[in-house]
Design a protein that fits this description.
92 residues; mainly alpha; flat
């Protein structure tokens, strides 16, 4: 019975210590909270611009146009390269 009483006492003591630490860390701080009630003009402009993007439509007839079809791709093909080790951080 004494062992159960000691375990209960240790458990209650741990709960009290954890509760005290949580209370101490969550106490009021002297630094002000960094929140704004009014949105900045920059953010409202950005949101208005993003909202106007929904109204943009793309005329797909440009892709069948003769001028678009005459365009040439000057891209360079990248040759395949030898790969390294599967795990470069593995010991040698």
């Amino acid at each position: 019975m004494a062992i159960l009483k000691n375990k209960l006492l240790v458990g209650l003591l741990m709960v009290a210590v954890i509760g005290g630490l949580l209370y101490w860390w969550s106490g009021s701080s002297s630094s002000p909270v960094l929140t704004q009630d009014t949105p900045s003009p920059l953010s409202t402009d950005l949101l208005a611009t993003l909202g106007s993007l929904n109204t943009i439509t793309l005329d797909e007839s440009i892709f069948v146009d003769e001028t678009f079809q005459s365009l040439t791709d000057f891209g360079v093909a990248i040759p395949p390269q030898a790969t390294g080790r599967r795990n470069p951080f593995a010991p040698l």
